[in-house]
Design brief:
The complex is a heterodimer of chains A (about 270) and B (about 375).
Chain A (H helix, E strand, L loop, with lengths): L2 E6 L7 H14 L4 E5 L7 H5 L9 H5 L5 H4 L1 E2 L6 E4 L12 H12 L4 E5 L6 H7 L4 E6 L3 H17 L3 E9 L1 H5 L6 H8 L3 E6 L2 H9 L11 H13 L13 H16 L1
Parallel strand pairs in A: 1-5, 1-6, 2-4, 2-5, 6-7, 7-8
Antiparallel strand pairs in A: 3-4
Helix pairs in contact in A: 1-11, 5-6
Chain B lengths: L19 E3 L12 E5 L18 H12 L12 H13 L17 H12 L5 E5 L2 E5 L10 H17 L8 E8 L5 H13 L2 E8 L2 H9 L3 E4 L7 H6 L5 E6 L8 E4 L1 E6 L7 E4 L3 E7 L2 E4 L9 E6 L3 E4 L2 E4 L11 E6 L2 E6 H15 L1
Parallel strand pairs in B: 4-5, 5-6, 6-7, 8-10, 9-11, 10-12, 11-13, 12-14, 13-15
Antiparallel strand pairs in B: 1-2, 2-16, 3-4, 14-17, 15-16, 17-18
Classes of the chains: A alpha/beta (about 270), B alpha/beta (about 375).
Chain lengths: ~270, ~375
C-alpha cells in the first residue's frame, strides 16, 4: 500500500520544502522507493533544494498535456537511486492543473513507489487544493510562532474537511535556549493549540541554510547534525518505529556537546 | 484521459547516467577547462526528431528498436504503451527529415483524428506576435485552436503582449498605428478597451481589428475601429507537414527573462539583457543573448541541428539544440568571455566566440 503524504503548512517560509526534500532522502536511505512531487507550480523550489534543477527537461504539465510520458518527466537523483522527483512547471500558474489531474498523476506514481511525498505551496488556494487532493496523510509543518501556528490550525481544519484524517505535526526551527528563557513557544504550547500527534521536532540550524543553498539535503551530508538526525527520526517514525524524541529542551550547551559526541563517535 | 499514457516503464529516467564531454573546442593552456555534462538526445518538447547517434540513451535506443519491430508488439518488455507508440510514430511522420524509409510501412495506420491532436500540441507553443508587414505594425494573437479561449489564457496572452511591448520599447516610434489581428479569438468590448489602453500607454494607436468572429467584429465596430472581416485559413494538417514553414523574422527584445518567464518564437531570438535561472527561451532559429545566459536556452526547437546559441556570459542551467541537451558543469567559471554553443556529432559543444567565428562558422558553411 503506497503512502501518499502531503507536506503543508498554510504559512510560507516555515520549511515545507526543506522537510519534503530531507524526509524524502531519509526514507530513500531506509530503502524505500520514494517519489517527491512538487505541487508548487509557478514557484517551484524542490528541485533547487535537491540540486536537480539542471536535469529537468519535462515537467508535470507536459505529462498532463501528453507531450511526454510520466517516466520521462521523473528526475532521478544520482546520489540516491531510490528517489525520484516529479518537477512542477515554472512558467505556469497554479491554475495550470486541476485536483483531478493531480490525482491522476499521483495514482500513476503509486503503482511503482512506496512513498509519495507531495510538497504543497503556501496558502489555501488552488495550489493547496491541488496538493491535498490525492493525499491520504498529511504532515503539518509549523514554526513556534503565533502566526504559523494559527495558519497551521486553519489548514488542519481544511484537511479534515477534505477527509485527510491522518495528520501529524512537525515543529521546525525551534531554539531550545529561547524556549528556556520563555521567549519562544515551546513544543508543548504548540501541541496544546493544534491537538494533533507530534511526529518530529527540528532544531534551528544554520547548516540547513547551507545545505539548501548547495542543493544537498542535510540528510545526505557526511558530517552528522542534529537537524539531520531529527529528519531521520521522523522517517523512522513514519515507518512505524518508536523512536525517542531528541532532548532539545535541555540547555543550549548540551546541543554542542551532543554534536561533539556524535562527531567523536564518527571519528573513533 | 488515457491511463496508458501515465503508466510507468522499467526504464525510469532518461537523465540518469551522464557521460562527460570536453566542451571547449580550443584546448590551449590558457583556456580553463569547462566540462559540460552531456545528456545527449533526450527527446525534447520541440525537438521533433529521434536521432541515430552512437551515444543514444537506453530508452531512445529501445524506442527505435520497437519501432523497427512492429507497432503491435506490446509485450511486457516494451517500454512504450501502444498509445504512446502511436504518438512517437506520428511524431516521426511529422518530421520527414529524420524518418528512415524502413519505418514508413508502420505509419500508414495512423488515423487523421490523432494527427489533429498532434497538430494542436505543436501549435500550443505559439505566443503573441508583434511584427511589421508591408510597413504596417501588426499585433497577432494566437488562434483559439492554438491557445483555447478562456479567462486564464486571456490573462496569459495579456501578459505576453505586455512583455513584448515593453521589450521593444526603446526602438518604437511614438504614435505608430497598430493593426490587431485577432484571428478567431473571441474578444468583448471590455477586452478590446483594455488592449487599447495598454497600447496607448506605450504610445501606440489601435486603428483596425481583423477578425473572423462576428461578435468580435461587432464589439470592435461599436468601439469605433475599422473592422476587417477575415476568413480563417482552414489549414489541412497534411499540407502543413508537407510544406515546412519558413522561419519568422528575428525577435528583438530588450528585457530580462526572469524566473518563470518564457519566450517562444518561430525564428531567431535576440535578447538584449539576461536570461535568469528559471527563465526559458525557445526559438526555432538561433538564440543570441547580449548579456548573461543563466537559464535554459533551446535553439532549433523544430529540429534544426545547425542552430547555435550565443551569449556574452554563458552560465546556463541547460542548453538545448534541436534534440540534444547539455547540463552546466557543477563548478562555475570565474572568468567569462563571449561564447557560442553548437552541435557536433558528440553533442553540444561550446567555444569562445572569437575562435568560433574563425573556425567553426566556415566549417558549418562548408558542410551546408
Amino acid at each position: 500500500m503506497t503512502r501518499i503524504i502531503v507536506t503543508t503548512s498554510g504559512k510560507g517560509g516555515v520549511g515545507k520544502t526543506t522537510v519534503s526534500a530531507n524526509l524524502g532522502m531519509a526514507l530513500a536511505k531506509l530503502g524505500r522507493q520514494v517519489a517527491l512531487v512538487d505541487a508548487d507550480f509557478g514557484l517551484r523550489n524542490l528541485d533547487l533544494l535537491l540540486g536537480l534543477e539542471n536535469r529537468i527537461v519535462y515537467t508535470a504539465v507536459e505529462v498532463l498535456a501528453r507531450e511526454c510520458r510520466l517516466d520521462q518527466a521523473l528526475v532521478k537523483d544520482k546520489r540516491q537511486p531510490n528517489l525520484v522527483l516529479l518537477p512542477a512547471a515554472q512558467n505556469r500558474s497554479k491554475d495550470a492543473v486541476t485536483p483531478d489531474q493531480m490525482k491522476l498523476l499521483v495514482n500513476a506514481l503509486a503503482k511503482k513507489y512506496q512513498y509519495i511525498l507531495i510538497d504543497s505551496p503556501a496558502g489555501i488556494e488552488m495550489g493547496f487544493k491541488n496538493a491535498i487532493a490525492p493525499a491520504k496523510e498529511a504532515l503539518i509543518v509549523t514554526t513556534p510562532e503565533i502566526s504559523a501556528v494559527r495558519d497551521a490550525d486553519r489548514v488542519v481544519g481544511l484537511l479534515e474537511a477534505q477527509g485527510v484524517n491522518k495528520i501529524h505535526l512537525i515543529i521546525n526551527r525551534i531554539r531550545p535556549a529561547m524556549v528556556q528563557a520563555n521567549d519562544m513557544m515551546s513544543v508543548q504550547d504548540v501541541q496544546e493549540l493544534l491537538a494533533i500527534p507530534l511526529i518530529g521536532v527540528i532544531p534551528d540550524d544554520e547548516r540547513v541554510i547551507v545545505s539548501t543553498n548547495r542543493g544537498e539535503p542535510l540528510v545526505l551530508s557526511d558530517t552528522p547534525s542534529i537537524a539531520a538526525l531529527a529528519f531521520e527520526n521522523i522517517a523512522r517514525r513514519l515507518e512505524g518505529q518508536t523512536v525517542e524524541f531528541l532532548e532539545l529542551d535541555s540547555p543550549n550547551d548540551n546541543i554542542f556537546s551532543r554534536l561533539r559526541k556524535l562527531l567523536w563517535t564518527k571519528i573513533v | 484521459m488515457n491511463s496508458d499514457h501515465l503508466s510507468l516503464s522499467p526504464v525510469t529516467c532518461h537523465l540518469s547516467p551522464v557521460p562527460y564531454f570536453q566542451l571547449r573546442m580550443n584546448s590551449d593552456s590558457t583556456n580553463s577547462s569547462n566540462d559540460f555534462q552531456q545528456d545527449s538526445n533526450s527527446q525534447l518538447p520541440g525537438g521533433k526528431s529521434i536521432s541515430k547517434q552512437a551515444d543514444v540513451e537506453e530508452n531512445i535506443a529501445k524506442t527505435a528498436s520497437i519501432l523497427a519491430d512492429s507497432t503491435d508488439d506490446t509485450d511486457s518488455n516494451s517500454i512504450i504503451p501502444n498509445a504512446d507508440l502511436n504518438s512517437v510514430l506520428l511524431y516521426l511522420q511529422a518530421n520527414a527529415v529524420s524518418t528512415n524509409a524502413e519505418y514508413n510501412s508502420n505509419l500508414s495506420d495512423v488515423s487523421n483524428n490523432e494527427l489533429g491532436l498532434l497538430e494542436e500540441k505543436i501549435n500550443h507553443k505559439i505566443q503573441v506576435q508583434l511584427k511589421t508587414e508591408e510597413g504596417r505594425l501588426l499585433l497577432i494573437l494566437p488562434t483559439e485552436s492554438q491557445v483555447p479561449g478562456s479567462e486564464i489564457s486571456w490573462s496569459e496572452i495579456w501578459q505576453q503582449m505586455k512583455q513584448r511591448l515593453n521589450g521593444s520599447d526603446r526602438l518604437r516610434i511614438p504614435n505608430t498605428i497598430v493593426h490587431l489581428v485577432a484571428q478567431d479569438r473571441l474578444l468583448d468590448s471590455r477586452q478590446l478597451q483594455q488592449l487599447e489602453e495598454t497600447l496607448n500607454e506605450v504610445q501606440l494607436q489601435l486603428k483596425s481589428v481583423a477578425t473572423s468572429r462576428r461578435q468580435t467584429a461587432i464589439a470592435a465596430c461599436t468601439l469605433g475601429y475599422s473592422v476587417e472581416q477575415i476568413q480563417l485559413q482552414i489549414s489541412f494538417t497534411t499540407d502543413l507537414q508537407a510544406t515546412p514553414k519558413a522561419l519568422a523574422d528575428a525577435l528583438y527584445l530588450e528585457m530580462t527573462v526572469r524566473s518563470g518567464g518564457e519566450i517562444r518564437h518561430p525564428g531567431t531570438v535576440i535578447i538584449l539583457g539576461d536570461i535568469n535561472p528559471g527563465g526559458i527561451v525557445v526559438a526555432d532559429g538561433d538564440i543570441l543573448v547580449w548579456g548573461r545566459l543563466r537559464g535554459v536556452a533551446h535553439a532549433g526547437a523544430t529540429g534544426n541541428r545547425e542552430c547555435i546559441i550565443m551569449a556574452l556570459q554563458m552560465e546556463p542551467t541547460q542548453l538545448r539544440i534541436a534534440d540534444a541537451v547539455a547540463r552546466a558543469p557543477e563548478k562555475s567559471l570565474r572568468q567569462f568571455s563571449p561564447e557560442v554553443a553548437y552541435i557536433t556529432s558528440q553533442g553540444i559543444r561550446i567555444s569562445k566566440a572569437a575562435d568560433f567565428s574563425r573556425n567553426q562558422l566556415s566549417k558549418i558553411n562548408q558542410s551546408l
